[in-house]
Amino acid sequence: MTDTPYAETGGDTGDRPARGGDRTARRQRPQRASGRAPHSEAERSLVERLTSAFEANDVEAIVALLSEDVRFTMPPLEYDGRELAARFLQAVTLQERRRNRVVATRANGQPAFGLYVRDPGGRIFHAMGLLVLNLAGDEVCAITRFDNSVLARFGLPRKLPR
């Protein structure tokens, strides 16, 4: 799962439990074509809106960019649909008191970004992982989070200065 860093290519919980066990069924989920060329203006625009929403902790803006049947995956957990994704984001990732930063890259040809959260002292941002996006038309149809162990492969640090 390596790829050229995005900057080098010219690109600047809920009531239902998370899914866990049936990997065969998950593998059989049809993959959607993105409908947009890599590095296109449309792709850049969608990714910029999503990263701005993450940095602003704006769950409503993020959810507005997701497809109705979005799959939010953090192996081995999966959340299907906008409602569960919104609940997860609100409860875990995008708490109001946190300040986030995003650093764009690419993974397996897909837009991706390192997500960082500022420490309570406000002097440094710590990595929360790599988010890889799958796009379909004007929506994000899947977000897969990988832990910090993959960051170096994408030229991303574990910490960012304020």
Count the helices. How many? 4
- Report how far apart the termini are: 29 Å
CATH class designation: Alpha Beta
**Element-level helix/strand string:** HHHEEHEEEEE
What topology emerges from the helices and strands here?
Elements: H1 23-27, H2 41-55, H3 59-64, E1 66-74, E2 77-80, H4 82-93, E3 100-107, E4 110-118, E5 124-136, E6 139-146, E7 159-161
Parallel strand pairs: 1-6
Antiparallel strand pairs: 1-2, 3-4, 4-5, 5-6, 5-7
Account of the protein in words:
The structure is a single chain. With 162 residues, the chain is of the alpha+beta class. It has a single domain, classed as Roll (Nuclear Transport Factor 2, Chain: A), CATH 3.10.450.50. Helices cover 23% and strands 33% of the residues. It has helices at 23-27, 41-55, 59-64, 82-93; strands at residues 66-74, 77-80, 100-107, 110-118, 124-136, 139-146, 159-161. Strands 1, 2, 3, 4, 5, 6 and 7 form a seven-stranded mixed sheet that branches. A hairpin with a 2-residue loop joins strand 1 (66-74) and strand 2 (77-80). It is globular. The two termini are 29 Å apart. The model is unreliable at 1-36 (pLDDT under 50).
Relevant terms:
162 residues; alpha+beta; Nuclear Transport Factor 2, Chain: A; seven-stranded mixed sheet; 4 helices; 7 strands; 23% helix; globular
In short:
With 162 residues, the chain is α+β, with helices and mostly antiparallel strands. The protein has helices at 23-27, 41-55, 59-64, 82-93; strands spanning 66-74, 77-80, 100-107, 110-118, 124-136, 139-146, 159-161.
